[in-house]
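Researcher: Please predict.
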Amino acid sequence: MKQINSNTLLELLQSDVREILLQCTALQNTNQALLTQQPQPGKWSVAQVLEHLNIYARYYITAIEERLHLNQSGPNQNFTPGWLGNYFTNLMKPTGDKHIKSKMKSPANAVPSAQPDAVAMLTEFINHQHHLLNLLQIARTANLDYNRVPISLTKLIKLKLGDTFRFFIAHEQRHFLQIENTLKQVEQNRLSVLSAA
């Protein structure tokens, strides 16, 4: 795998999180009713997507923070992605032209409730993003290759700290593309109802 300067990687990831926070600002200014509407039966509303992301954030932010507290090695100048971490990241990350490469079913423990509170889910998510920005800053003092974080599905598989950040943020980017598409569909549905009235 191709090496990348550790600080450059962390700066890129911080930039990705700031972009997500900008999108959250737009969501804060969106009619709450739109955030709770499903675009189609069986498809998640924006509030449900946010709850799903919060489920992952509760796990990964805690796991990353614990790993950083246990950090006993200094920073490494260059980070080399692991093959599994790279695979997971590429599987999640949307393409440059804003497409999701492959659909996948969420694990049972990450499926959101039927009607989550949109405001509560968005507020929690924004708090997680600010926490994540702080962890990315702290990670400048850690070895992104040596420190490893267990994945949420099983404690037996651990990803390099750098790969954990990459995968976790790619997962958020994937679902923010889903949020964008969901809002477009919900708005289309609303306009169709209005024009039929």
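Model: The helical segments are 6-28, 32-35, 46-69, 83-92, 118-138, 161-196.
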